[in-house]
What we know:
The chain is an alpha+beta fold. It has two domains: 1-74, no CATH class; 84-158, no CATH class. It is built from three helices and nine strands; from the N terminus they run E-E-E-E-H-H-E-E-E-H-E-E. It has helices at 39-46, 84-90, 113-124, and strands at 2-6, 13-17, 24-26, 33-35, 95-101, 106-107, 110-111, 129-140, 147-158. Strands 5-9-8 form a three-stranded antiparallel β-sheet, covered by helices on one side. The chain has a two-stranded antiparallel sheet with strand order 1-2. The radius of gyration is 33 Å and the shape is elongated.
Amino acid sequence: MDIVFNCPHCGLSLEVDQDAAGQQFDCPTCQKPVTVPTAAAVLLKTAPVGTAVLPESPRDEKRMAVPASQKPGGSLIQKPNKSLELAAKESKPGMRVKTLRHSDFKEAGKDKFDEVVSDFLNKIGDQAIVSITPIQCSYLDAGTQKLLPDFGVLVIYRG
């Protein structure tokens, strides 16, 4: 018969073989010491008042090993990785890459690509520029659902 009980520190539901009654181990979640209660103590604690507690019929024995670890448990919920843009801003100055596509700067029939590229290059300064490379690419036009050719520049700079 298995003994099912909760960790008194964190409330984790634990199930161990009845042979482990009275033994002490560290909770796999909170790493605090837990003593396995006897099967009778668990049954008396969970049985409603006025009911008779009868032993269970024999069944297949389940052997469950309680993991023992010397290091503290890690968090089960991990923080998401920082966005590349945020990581670039927080990191030490180094090499950076910026891609500017022509199609991203066409607004209401006006072509602002040259202005945006010039403003970006002026912002980072001549000394920081390592290379400027023209690129050719394509994009999906939302209106016509066709793949249209495009161009832009790839700027590598120290930032």
